[in-house]
Amino acid sequence: MRIAVIGAGGVGGYFGGKLALAGHDVTFVARGRQLEALRARGLRIETAGTTLSVPTQGAVEDIAAVGPADVTMLCVKLWDVEPTAPRLAPLVRDGGVVIPFQNGVESHEVLRRILGPRHVLGGIAYIAATLREPGVVAQTGSMARLVVGAFEPEQAPRAEAFAAVCGGAGIDCSVAPDVRVALWSKYVFLAALSGCTSLARQPVGVIRSDPDLRATMAAAMHEIVAVAHAQGVLLPEGFVARQLAFLDGLPAEMRSSMQNDLAAGSRLEAPWLAGGVARMGRAAGVPTPVNSTIYAAMKPYVDGTVVKDR
Question: pTM here?
Answer without folding.
Answer: 0.93
